[in-house]
Amino acid sequence: MLRTERERIKDLGAFDTPKEIAEFLASWAIRKSSDRVLDPGAGSGVFVEAAISRFTELGKPSSQAINQIFAVEKDKERYGRLLSKLKDKHGFTDSKNLILSDFFNVIPKRSWFSDIPEPIRVDAVIGNPPYVERQRLNNVRSIQKKILPSLEQSIDLHSVTDIYGYFILHSTSFLGEGGRLAFIVSDTWLHMDFGKPIKEFLLNNFHLKAIVGFDRRVFSNALVRAILLLVERSSQSKSDNQVTFVQLRDYNAVGKLHSMLSGDLNGNGWAKVVRIEQSSLSTNASWSKYLKGSKVYFEIERSPRVTALGNIADVNIGLQTLRKGFYVFDRSKINQTRIEDKFLEPITLSPRYIPKVVSSKRQVDDRVLFCDMAKDKIRSQALLDYIKSAEKMKISPRGKSLVVTGVHNLPRIKKANRNPWYNLIPEIERRCRGLVLVPRRFYKKFYVTWNKAGVVANEDFINVHPKKGISSEALLAVLNSSFGELVCRINAQLYGGGVFDLRPDDVRSLPVIDVRQLSETETTALEQAYREFVTKESRERIDSVIYEILQLSPNYRGRLAEELEDLRSLSEISKG
């Protein structure tokens, strides 16, 4: 079956970079007219063109500059088009600098663009690595085997590393001391576990100069959120290096970044800027918070009255049934199957449809299968028929072409080792009735629910179980305050579709007021403020108590309010 052009481009992960961004990256990375430059994924040639323009600025004619630019492209059609364009536009006649190859097959210790029989280094690497969906990567081990020897150091890469992570690492093998890498990549590595070894590698071998984010999508046809990564190879001490995190509010302000990075501009009105000592960056922490947070926020985060939520509560994700279509019932499905209520338990499925306080299970409409009996012990014919029917069903695992017989034979269900296979009760009772429910994904609306009735929470919630002696209402007041929402938005991953996404680790590390330290008067004030929030739906009193506890000045309060409103607006901006 022939693939369409759209499918072919999707396999390649090709998204052309806006010209102004390519030109900024080239101008930052290329500093001398004698520099040698590598673009590891040339595509349509926007970075090659940007490099030529940069050399022209530095006084070198394009006919000479082209000999110092080396580009790799794996797709034969795109390679041919680029070669023709360079010949027509710049009189490019020698194709040795434009390599038709998978970049991971290009090894720096081979003389691939020189007659000199020794390792070759370039002065700048610029580009936009491909955005390939993980499920389309079938040769991960092969890629790792090719690139790791060139790094000349041990690095334990995750099997789910996005392909741009491999591009970052392999590209550094071509850089000499003082060489610069300037990429536009997805921001997921700042936040996800697979980014930890990449962060560690960069921290140990480079001066991180800047990470630049955008309030809106750079690529309108991709849901990824892009950042600019600017690093410089250095064997010198990293302790004095400051990393500049920039969140651009004005997409057209890319050209101002040079002045900001040199310290001449502070970004008022068009960018948010935070400067962090490189030595203080942790590989275990999310770096994306430095793009969303402000200096004021980080000052509060270090307050002695603030602690990580995980210190005062146990945190875990809600129920992962692994096959919602079998385990979960709405009212029509209950009527259709006629399964008795005693085998069904109320479950809340979405933060959009749950009240601020769940005081009765009757407030929740959906149900989840709740049976731990073996089939030969079940006396309900309706339930028995339902289970047997599921065991005969032809079904495909998610994202795979494999077909199995029976829900119980799905790989994820088998791996869960439930006994019997449809029994969710141990998981539910162990961790899925959190007293406090934090929404895992949210847009503009945000609140945290008090699960007084102990209904089951599914995986769209993070369960928070306050430790012994912790006032639940005081903690709920903290999490439902404007500062609580701000903390959640800053520490969540923001996706291109405008959704904020929290993982259990994010919630566990949320900086919140340490309610263990509160006086009886402060605790009572928070509890009363929370009750007012529930009945009047106003945060005003909660915020007032929180700000008094944190001893925030009116100026700081105003700045945090503006920051929260900016973050809320990102949900709308990021959709476009």
Q: Structural class, from secondary structure content?
A: alpha/beta
Using the CA coordinates, give the radius of gyration: 27 Å
| Assigned CATH architecture of one domain | 3-Layer(aba) Sandwich
> Any idea of the CATH topology of one domain?
Rossmann fold
pLDDT average, as an integer?
89
| General form | globular
Number of strands: 24
Main sheet: strand order: 3-2-1-4-5-7-6-8-9
As residue ranges, the low-confidence spans are 7-13, 114-118, 218-223
Describe the structure.
This protein is an alpha/beta fold. The chain has 22 helices and 24 strands. The longest helix is centred in the last third of the chain and has 20 residues, at 554-573. It is globular, with a radius of gyration of 27 Å.
SSE layout and pairings?
Blueprint: H1 5-12, H2 19-29, E1 37-39, H3 46-57, H4 62-65, E2 69-73, H5 76-90, E3 98-100, E4 122-127, H6 140-151, H7 163-172, E5 175-186, H8 196-205, E6 206-214, E7 226-233, E8 242-248, H9 257-261, E9 271-277, H10 289-292, H11 295-301, E10 306-308, E11 313-317, H12 324-327, E12 328-329, H13 331-337, E13 344-348, E14 367-369, H14 381-392, E15 394-395, E16 404-405, H15 411-416, H16 425-431, E17 436-439, E18 441-442, E19 449-450, E20 456-457, E21 461-466, H17 472-480, H18 482-491, E22 493-494, E23 500-501, H19 504-508, E24 511-513, H20 520-536, H21 540-550, H22 554-573
Parallel strand pairs: 1-2, 1-4, 2-3, 4-5, 6-8, 13-20
Antiparallel strand pairs: 5-7, 6-7, 8-9, 10-24, 11-21, 12-14, 13-14, 15-16, 17-19, 17-21, 18-23, 22-23
Helix pairs in contact: 2-3, 6-7, 17-18, 17-20, 18-22, 20-21
